[in-house]
Write a structure and sequence with these properties.
Length: about 270
């Protein structure tokens, strides 16, 4: 009986140890959902207005690399991802398809509410539009809550107001000097009305940001005005001019043992 009890005790202890080890291994294994990485967003030119979500174009090849310091986009696996042709621009003769932009209309959260649902130019209230007699309209609490920048519109320092830029009836459009609508995806056509020198410099590649093929006849993505500038609060930052200063990034370093960066001259994504 003693031998039987001893054997039973040994088996019980071994079984308990095996169960404890198995349970520990199961606990150590992270669930598949937790193991999956959360999506990473980084901004391309203005935080809060030009975010892009990191994803893989192909295994091991991300569409964008984000700075762990500032959250800015540092490198593009495909600089033309999500872009469309820029369209015709005055005084620019670029073959179709070589100048592309990333549409922003779909990213504007207030567009469906302001531009379509409320200010759609339909109905007796908006035909014809009833506009204030001066450029200091009475504040509307609903709009002030939705667009806080309007309470202190610094663009133009009091010289302009909403309808100098937004179409009077088609609120999902901007407006040119002749009252014709302009797409929100081509804000340079609006901004150039007043900032002609900046538009000229932007056309010449002196002002603004471009990525893509850096040869004279190469395809490039052009960043438009509102991707870098907040049109409602352009006098921003500590200097009260320009826009918020960006934290500088350190210069990129080659991996140890790599003599040059010739690999960057070969683009892995065919276009």
């Amino acid at each position: 009986m003693r031998k039987l009890a001893t054997v039973s005790l040994i088996l019980a202890l071994c079984g308990g140890a095996y169960y404890a080890v198995s349970a520990a291994e199961k606990t150590a294994e992270p669930p598949k959902e937790a193991a999956a990485k959360a999506p990473v967003d980084c901004f391309e030119s203005r935080k809060g207005a030009s975010e892009v979500t990191q994803r893989e174009i192909k295994p091991g090849w991300p569409n964008v690399k984000c700075s762990p310091t500032t959250g800015a986009a540092l490198w593009y696996g495909d600089p033309f991802d999500g872009t469309v042709p820029m369209g015709k621009m005055p005084q620019m003769d670029i073959p179709e398809g070589l100048a592309v932009v990333k549409p922003r209309s779909e990213k504007l959260a207030l567009m469906p509410i302001c531009g379509v649902s409320c200010h759609n130019g339909v109905g007796p209230k908006f035909t014809p539009p009833v506009l204030p007699k001066d450029k200091k309209p009475a504040p509307v609490p609903t709009m002030a809550a939705m667009v806080p920048d309007l309470a202190n519109l610094q663009h133009g320092r009091g010289r302009i107001w909403c309808m100098d830029c937004h179409h009077t009836t088609q609120r999902n459009k901007l407006v040119d000097h002749w009252g014709d609508p302009i797409s929100f995806d081509q804000p340079q056509l609006l901004c150039g009305k007043c900032h002609g020198d900046k538009l000229r410099d932007w056309r010449d590649g002196i002002h603004g940001k471009r990525i893509g093929e850096f040869v004279s006849t190469g395809k490039k993505r052009w960043f438009t005005c509102t991707e870098c500038h907040n049109p409602h609060n352009v006098q921003d930052g500590a200097r009260n001019r320009g826009f918020v200063q960006l934290q500088p990034e350190p210069s990129p370093q080659l991996p140890r043992g790599m003599a040059n960066a010739d690999h960057e001259k070969l683009h892995p994504i065919p276009h």
